[in-house]
Design brief:
This protein is α/β, with parallel strands linked by helices. It has one domain: Rossmann fold (3-Layer(aba) Sandwich), CATH 3.40.50. 37% of the residues lie in helices and 17% in strands. The chain is built from 9 helices and 9 strands. The chain has a 5-stranded parallel sheet with strand order 3-9-8-4-5. It has a two-stranded antiparallel sheet with strand order 1-2. A two-stranded antiparallel sheet has the order 6-7. Helix 5 packs across helix 7. The longest helix is centred in the N-terminal third of the chain and has 16 residues. It binds zinc ion (ZN) (2 copies). The site of one zinc ion (ZN) has 8 residues, from helix 3.
Length: 238
């Protein structure tokens, strides 16, 4: 074995040993598998089957869902890691409101494995929070996700080029049909994205209204291919 290979192997062993034994966030069993144990990992609602190429909605036939056929979104493609059901919904709430910031890296590690490395976007934009919400929460969980993805996949992180300029009502407080209207003109991007392949990162895809509004702002700055990567997606529209 070369010295370099041996160093790498030892570093790998050290790293493995460095993962502390801790209670699984989901079932409480002590494990050294990270934030949740291997049994819970196997039971998570991964989306692995065929899905709409625009919005990642699980499909039983065809390539594009009925909703995207009648209302094509401004992004070309979406990747979603999980269905937004229990217990992923609880984990995402802990990331957003429970200060469990390490969840961002755990999700990003798994999401990065889903992305084909031969057609990577060239920049990554997290869903911006309005400054008022950022002050309340203290952090933007989508920036943490995007930062981890940018490191893992070696894609430039554009953390400040798109801003939320309207402090909109929370999307989850509104009926599905009102969500597109609520997001109108909510974002502004102040840097040219001319000819760039952009990926927008968010935690949850529900109606797609926020991502679509952000995609419009990116398209207005010249982005020519836009995709979205999300941790979880509701398994029907709205
Ligand atoms: Zn567990
Ligand atoms: Zn669709």
């Amino acid at each position: 074995m070369s010295i370099l290979a041996s160093i790498k192997l030892n570093a790998g062993l050290l790293f493995k040993q460095a993962i502390p034994v801790q209670p699984c966030l989901l079932c409480g069993v002590m494990s050294d598998a990270g934030l949740w144990c291997e049994d819970c990992e196997r039971s998570l609602p991964y989306l692995r089957g065929p899905s709409c190429r625009h919005c990642a909605l699980p499909l039983t036939s065809g390539e594009i869902c009925g909703h995207c056929l009648s209302n094509p979104p401004r992004f070309d493609r979406s990747t979603a890691l999980y269905a937004y059901t229990f217990p992923v919904n609880k984990l995402i709430q802990q990331l957003k409101y429970g200060d469990q910031l390490a969840l961002a890296d755990a999700f990003a590690t798994r999401l990065a494995l889903r992305i084909p490395t031969d057609e990577l976007p060239d920049c990554i934009i997290p869903m911006p929070l309005h400054p008022n919400k950022l002050r309340q929460r203290g952090y933007n969980q989508t920036l943490l996700l995007a930062r981890s993805l940018s490191k893992r996949l070696d894609i430039a992180l554009l953390s400040d080029v798109c801003k939320r300029v309207r402090d909109t009502a929370s999307q989850s407080s509104l009926p599905y049909k009102a969500r597109g209207k609520n997001m109108r003109e909510a974002f502004a991007c102040d840097v040219s994205l001319m000819g760039r392949k952009v990926v927008l990162v968010d935690d949850v895809y529900t109606s797609g209204a926020s991502l679509n509004a952000l995609a419009k702002a990116a398209a207005n700055q010249g982005a020519n291919h836009i995709e979205t990567w999300v941790v979880a997606r509701t398994i029907r529209h709205g």
